[in-house]
Amino acid sequence: KENIINRAINVLDANFQKGGFTIPSKGLYPFQWKWDSGFIAVGLAHYNIDHAKKEIETLLNAQWDNGFIPHIVFHTDDDSYFPGHDFHRSDLHPLSSKKYKSTGMTQPPVTAFVLQDMLNIVDDKEDMLNFIKGQIDKVYDNHVYFYENRDPQNEGLVYIYHNWESGTDNSPVWDDIWDTMNPPEYTFERKDTTHVDASQRPSKREYDHYLYIIDIAKQNNYDDAKIAELSPFLVQDPLFNAMLIKSNKALMELYELFGGNEDKIAYLRKNQERSIAAFNQKLWDNELGAYVHYDMRNDKPIRHVSSSSFSPLFAGIPSKERAEVLVNTMMDRFGGDDKYLCASFDPTDNRFNPRKYWRGPVWINMNWMLYRGLKEYGYKEIAARVQNDSIELVERDGFFEYFDCRKDTGEEIRKGYGGDNFSWTAALIIDLLK
Ligand code: DGY
Questions:
Q1: Residues with a CB atom less than 6 Å from ligand 1
Q2: DSSP 299-311
Q3: Cα–ligand 1 centroid distance for 152 (angstroms)
Q4: Contact 328, 139 (CB under 8 A)
Q5: Nearest residue CA, atom 7 of ligand 1?
Q6: How many whole angstroms from its chain centre is CA 246?
Q7: Using alpha carbons only, what angle is made at residue 140 by residues 136 and 143, rounded to the nearest 5 degrees?
Q8: Does the active-site annotation cover 263?
Q9: Are 346 and 293 in contact (CB under 8 A)?
Q10: What is the arithmetic mean of pLDDT over 387-399?
Q11: CB neighbours of 297 closer than 8 A, spacing ≥ 6?
Q12: Which residues of 60-81 are buried (b: 16+ CB within 10 A; e: fewer)?
């Protein structure tokens, strides 16, 4: 156990940059990513509180004047990543950061629950409380941004306009949307496939879709209302909304701890109640026994089960009864003895691919949330399996970005996939072992 923790610490230390943030993985991801940063800070809080605080600070420094927090902060001029800031051109938005280059899209809002975790982890509570006091209003502004700008029909659920906002970049869930689009063929140089085997990454045609959605947002200067009106990709994502609900709960609890701030707490509470009700009403699929995505552009649910379907457990969204149905769905489809929990996409679906990014492999951040959710709902044994499977995969393959969920791949040499020495894998393994 000590040995894995030490190896994990080495990964995080090697990925820490002079600018005070941690890259997800050398080569493949050379900047700061929003949700990565959050998970990384949880791991750092166990052994280097200074770095953990820096991680959050550097991310929040890049916040826009409208409360928006971007998905990538381009701290350096590194041209080994595509698409870089010269493609994204987030400066077209009038309220974008004047100091930091970034993308014009976001990622799941994890920051508030991460701050609460950091507080729970450290011994010096007062010091951490002071740190949080200095940051919390920025996170509040970020939640206000979501409620006021990302919910055009005032439903209690926020939209994402790009698959990269979901965090589950090339999930088969998006195939249904790609079927409705016919983007131009872009000419560009892929950089990711110089770092990682192409069989583990999205296809060229998928990238055409990704770039086309950005082009439409750019043509509209990243205006949220225009995007809601025009983007061919407009989705209510269960993972994204569950993260917002989980973070919002943490935000309310932190404000309550500080005292005062009644107006802010009341605002958050009103939105929280609406969100949970809408989530259970709109994103639950009775026939599948799981939460699913909703395609707002084409006005229909996207009826596939993925690891995102189980993330509401982490946010306390389902009732006890519904949680039981959800866990049964997971065990039936994902939980066979021949598999590690938890595949990122339904292994019984013909779109499942055990080695391609978000189309099937196991991801440690999803497992970490699943573990916590299962424990919270009283599923101790399954939670322990998720915890042990995560540790075993890292022991088997190393600190990879994602892992084959099959126990027997039929191959001699097993290897994790995607980026090696991947920061959030290291960070969350530390947390799972503590
Ligand atoms: C990538 O480049 O694949 C990133 O995950 C986008 O956020």
A1: 71, 164, 169, 192
A2: TEEE---BGGGGG
A3: 27
A4: no
A5: 164
A6: 13
A7: 140
A8: no
A9: no
A10: 96
A11: 177, 180, 231, 232, 233, 234, 235
A12: bebbbebbbbbbbbbbeeeeeb
- The beta strand positions in 257-345, using DSSP E, are 284-285, 290-291, 293-295, 300-302
The SS3 of residue 402 is: strand
Q: Does residue 25 sit in helix, strand or coil?
A: strand
Tell me the pLDDT tens digit for each residue of 98-118.
999 999 999 999 999 999 999
> Above pLDDT 70, what percent of the chain?
99
Q: How far is the CA of 42 from the centre of ligand 1 (A)?
A: 21
Question: Which pLDDT value is given to residue 414?
Answer: 67
Smallest CA separation from ligand 1 atom 6, residue: 164
| Ligand 1 mutation pick, 164, 165, 170, 195, max ligand atoms within 8 A of CB | 164
The angle at the Cα of 419, spanning 83 to 234, to the nearest 5 degrees, equals 45
Q: Are the CB atoms for 8 and 429 separated by under 8 Å? A: yes
What is the Å distance from ligand 1's center to 253 Cα? 32
Residues whose CB is less than 8 angstroms from the CB of residue 266 and which lie 6 or more positions away in sequence, other chains included:
none
- Number of DSSP helices (H) and strands (E) in the chain, helices first: 17, 8
For ligand 1, the distance from its centroid to the CA atom of residue 164, given in whole angstroms, is 7
273 is catalytic: no
DSSP class per residue in 154-221 = -SS---B-SHHHHS-TT-GGGHHHHTT----------SHHHHS-GGGS--HHHHHHHHHHHHHHHHTT
Query: Ligand 1: which atom is nearest the Cα of residue 72?
Result: 7
In the chain, the domains with their CATH numbers are: 2-433 (1.50.10.10)
Q: Starting at the earlier edge strand, list the strands of the sheet with 235-236.
A: 235-236, 293-295, 300-302
- What phi and psi, each to the nearest 5 degrees, are found at residue 300? -160, 150
Give me ligand 1 centre to Cα 298, in Å.
25
Residue 193 has pLDDT above 80, yes or no: yes
Q: Report the complex ipTM.
A: 0.89
Candidate list 13, 169, 223, 324, residue with the active-site label: 169
Q: Which residue has the tokens 């599923």?
A: 379
Given 155, 401, 404, 431, which residue is catalytic? 401
pLDDT tens figures, 11-56: 999 999 999 999 999 999 999 999 999 999 999 999 999 999 999 9
Q: Which of 25, 29, 34, 39 to mutate to test the pocket of ligand 1 (most atoms within 8 A of CB)?
A: 29
Number of neighbouring beta carbons within 10 Å of residue 225: 10
What does the alpha-carbon distance between residue 428 and residue 367 come to, in Å, rounded to a whole number? 9
